[in-house]
Queue: 3 jobs
Job 1
Amino acid sequence: MSPIKPIYASFRSIGAYAPEKILSNADLEKMVDTTDEWILKRTGIKERHIAAADEYTSDMAAKACELAIERSGIAKNKIDLVLCATVTPDYFNMPSTACIISDKIGIRNVQAFDISAACSGFVYLLSIAKAFIESGMKQNVLIVGAEKFSSIVDYTDRSTCILFGDGAGAAIISATSNKEEGFIDLHASADGSYADLLITPAPGAIHPASQHVIDTGLNFVQMKGNEIFKLAVKTLTNDVKEILAKNEINPEDIPHFIPHQANYRIIKAVGDALKMKDEQVVLTVGKYGNTSAASIPMAINDIWESGRLQTGELMLLDTFGGGLTWASALLPFAGQAINK
Ligand code: UT7
């Protein structure tokens, strides 16, 4: 009997979408008591993209998915799992946004579901895709992080409305027998005792939709920004140090460190702690703001489209978000590079 060949999960393609409308710091100056200078200095954000009133999470996700599928060269009928990470689903209860996306892109009769892990959603999806593929259950998994964060932001609250933007990023994760193409390592974790640091209290079983919810703004995101900031720097730095040490990889050998794009100061602090050079660290927070589950795939798409991401190059992903959740991943880009 011949031995069973191991199967690995590989990152085959990337696609992303940012809505057309731009909300600049100058626009926000007219809406709340803030300044372009404060926002830039404290967050590094210059502008963010905002979806149109009739453009939903599934619409943005479908556009990103179409690109990722086309760039993978894999036929739609070979995709056997569709996963969406979002905290701004089209519908809060049902159906899942993954089901709606599948319908919009013409993939039917395959398993589809959503996960909720806030900003860590995309890396959580990578862990789920990996498990499905390496167990032999699925071959080609379409994953997408998508958010219409503007639908839960209170545009009179200066502590949150300056940060968030809308968008989507998708990838195809496929089975391979070539170990060189496979994910190297992935770590995902959570600590629910910090749940109140980043929360959208309603609608949900605790606060079902009601006039009270509307009157008190419980349907908007609430954040203890400063506490999250400190936890984020500590957790992200430790997480990255751990995954690199475990795999005996030096920070200087990482061509693309792609952290969650929440705040330039968080990214800089983590990059500095690892003694990374600026050119190793991918930065898109200035133009997209924090797009939650879409942030990392949108950043990967940026370096792919600019020709910076080459086949076989190592990516180090690192994220942190509501829950609290956090995750990191080390993996090569196993798709085709763009020739620039
Ligand atoms: O996606 C994952 C989860 N989210 C994050 O990772 C976000 C993490 N947190 C942050 O990025 C930062 O904490 C913020 C950008 C949200 C805030 O920056 P900060 O340096 O932590 O400011 P702070 O909350 O300590 O507030 C400092 C001051 C306060 O005024 P006083 O009390 O010192 O007079 C705030 O009222 O800045 C004030 N402030 C603002 N001023 C002008 C807060 N927001 C604004 C604003 N414009 N937009």
Job 2
Amino acid sequence: MFEEDCLFCKIVRGEIPAKKVFETKDVIAFNDIYPQAVEHYLFIHREHTKNANSMVAQKPEHLTAIFKAIREFTQQTYLETSGFRVVTNIGANAGQTVFHTHFHVLGGEKLGTFGSNSTKSSIH
Ligand code: AMP
Ligand code: ZN
């Protein structure tokens, strides 16, 4: 299934260009257009779900496919050796802007402390 107006479904269909770095029959990975690190990729399943919680509920096998792709890609590159971060935003407080489930893979440099409220010592 896809959504007509979804930006990442358009990338899957080739209607919007993206610099692909990795793909399988189920998953594609491409450069984030506004990179937050020297290397910043987005991993998505070709089939639309709106966020990671929906994916877990509706298509849990997609999660496995994506993390297998991340593993394969980071092993093929130096990222697994040097280290990388995987992030997924869900909803407004996290700042999700594209509602097609995606996992940010960030690396290529020493990454900053995670999160804008990282000075808070308590975890709720
Ligand atoms: P999020 O804020 O977690 O929903 O992430 C959406 C990400 O998509 C942001 O990091 C954007 O920079 C990125 N983005 C938006 N449009 C494009 C595009 N056309 N190609 C690649 N990345 C995009
Ligand atoms: Zn979509």
Job 3
Amino acid sequence: MSADDGVRVLAEKFASEGAAEYLGEPVTQAAHMLQAAMLAEREHAEGALIAAALLHDVGHFAVTMTGHELMSGTDTRHGEAGAAWLAPWFGPEVTEPVRLHVAAKRYLCAVEPDYLAALSPASVYTLGVQGGPMQGPELAEFEAHPYASAAIRVRRWDDQAKEPEVEPPPFSHFEPVLRALAR
Ligand code: FE
């Protein structure tokens, strides 16, 4: 599939599966991801980070997680699944922050007490099934990752992108950024 096809598939996913409720939050999946991209754009982030913010939860579209998976603590998979799904079209500057955005949450919970205190109730709940705050060698391992700081930036936009009153730009607004990055 060409880059154009990829962008079209994503646009369709936002319009269809994106209308679903975002696990326990007062916004839809699509509004959540569009708000994250809007925040990245407002901070004049580079295109790859705007794209990563926009696409960080495509793993929720691409795979259906079963209740069993949630209960057995494997929700880190939506980052992995999303990155794998995007890999035919985008390079690591987009897929790695997507893959690591759950790890970034677990990292921030360990190093910033205020971060943990400010998480939404739904996000505190999923933290449990995501493995809880990082501990021991996991922290240095995460910090050593070349895309750790990019993942942390995406994560902060992710956390702020849950405002029911905020009307983000439509998906088409971000299509030029995606086209410039897609291969
Ligand atoms: Fe998210």
